[in-house]
Amino acid sequence: MPNQTSRRQFLAQSIAASAALRVGRLAWGRGDKIILGEGDHRYEWVPDWLTPPSSIKYGDTHGLVQDSHGRIYLCHTVHPTSECPDGVCVFDEHGKFITSWGPQFRNGSHGLDLRKEGDTEYLYHCDINRRLFCKTTLDGKVLWEQGLPKEAGVYGEKDPFIPTNTAFSPNGDFYIVDGYGSNWIHQYDIKGNWIRTFGGPGKDPGKVQQPHGVWLDSRGKEPLLAVADRANRRIQYFTLDGKHHSFVTAGMRLPCDFDIRGHEMLVPDLESVVTILDGHNKVVVQLGDGAPSDLRNHPRSDFIPGKFIHPHDAMYLRNGDILVAEWVPIGRVTLLKRAR
Predict the structure, then answer these.
(1) Which of 198, 245, 249, 314 is most exposed, with the fewest beta carbons within 10 Å of its own?
(2) How far apart are alpha carbons 190 and 149 in whole angstroms?
(3) Whole-number mean pLDDT of the chain?
(4) Angle at Cα 198 formed by Cα 145 and Cα 267, nearest 5°?
(5) How much is the pLDDT for 75?
(6) Which residues fall within 8 angstroms of residue 258, CB to CB, at 6 or more apart?
(7) Measuring CA to CA, how many Å separate 239 from each of 159, 161, 199?
(8) Do residues 206 and 198 lie in contact, with contact meaning Cβ atoms separated by under 8 Å?
(9) Which domains are assigned to the chain?
(10) Which pLDDT band holds residue 41 (cuts at 50, 70, 90)?
(11) From CA 134, how far away is CA 13, in angstroms rounded?
């Protein structure tokens, strides 16, 4: 799989650098607590906040969303030793396990996004194993699913389609990024009909390499599509009709996805840090910097409190706390609780 090549390269670089001095640490102890950040952006590190029952063992913990009732949905690839095959776990807003579903997402559960359409909320999934994206109800009923968009006319016989995340336009359209496949971005209407395709592999403006995450950024004068152009180590902005707009490179290592609260953008970064950007996309703070990290395949006992390994998704909870899911094969979900 194309994404595995870049991941292996990334891990090799991290291991080679693991003997280097860890720098840029923004963590300090207060009693038994670890506080990350500074000023108005200080958070208490609360490890393993979302813990499933013993019948479920996490695989790579990939995507997070919260619905209007406060329920939290986590998707993961499911560990090979897990008794339960479900790829989606549901928790209440206090982190208590409610239920699980979605055995079909085992090994592939990756992108997870939520949208309210009328009075009803739906989940949009990207499955990197079955190479499709789909829409479900909040209890897992599949409404439709789609694979490679042949109508785009950009895929040859051997060109893979491996969708990774979804973003939503104000007019009802949605966008799918082919982050682990052939580096295209596809736009669809609310019924799932293909509209256009843009992007494509490269480093030039308008081109992307591993467009892993995508988000509708409405903080500016006009809504723009923010793409986590991960292998190019940047955020790339597009207009909603697919034209290149601008880049953000400051503070970016391997950006994975986004969330927005007020004028600030949250960016989980696979290279061991979570970054918060202000309304002008300037770095406000970088949290839990664990780079360089070679701990992906280590037991949980080797994980370092206050240090991230590979943040894959992050979101603001309704109360302003931050939840971070990491790309580690035994899963890790950390709560960053606002320090008061």
Answers:
(1) 249
(2) 15
(3) 92
(4) 80
(5) 98
(6) 213, 215, 217, 226, 228, 265, 266, 267
(7) 26, 23, 12
(8) yes
(9) 2-338 (2.120.10.30)
(10) very high
(11) 35
Query: What's the confidence (pLDDT) of residue 51?
Result: 95
Which tokens in the block code for residue 313? 């998704």
* Residue carrying structure tokens 């953000």: 248
* Nearest-angstrom CA–CA distance, 45 and 307: 9
- Tell whether the model's pLDDT for residue 196 goes beyond 90: yes
The residue behind tokens 């990756």 is 110
Three-state DSSP string of the chain: CHHHHHHHHHHHHHHHCCCCCCCCCCEEEECCEEEEEECCEEEEEECCCCCCCCCCCCCCEEEEEECCCCCEEEEECCCCCCCCCCCEEEECCCCCEEEEECHHHCCCEEEEEEEEECCEEEEEEEECCCCEEEEECCCCCEEEEECCCHHHCCCCCCCCCCCCEEEECCCCCEEEECCCCCCEEEEECCCCCEEEEEECECCCCCCECCEEEEEEECCCCCCEEEEEEHHHCEEEEECCCCCEEEEECCCCCCECCCEEECCEEEEEECCCEEEEECCCCCEEEEECCCCCCCCCCCCHHHCCCCCCCCEEEEEECCCCCEEEEECCCCCCEEEEEECC
The mean per-residue pLDDT over the stretch 109-134 comes to 98
What tens digit of pLDDT does each residue of 128-144 get?
A: 999 999 999 999 999 99
Task: Tell me: pLDDT of 2 over 50.
Answer: no
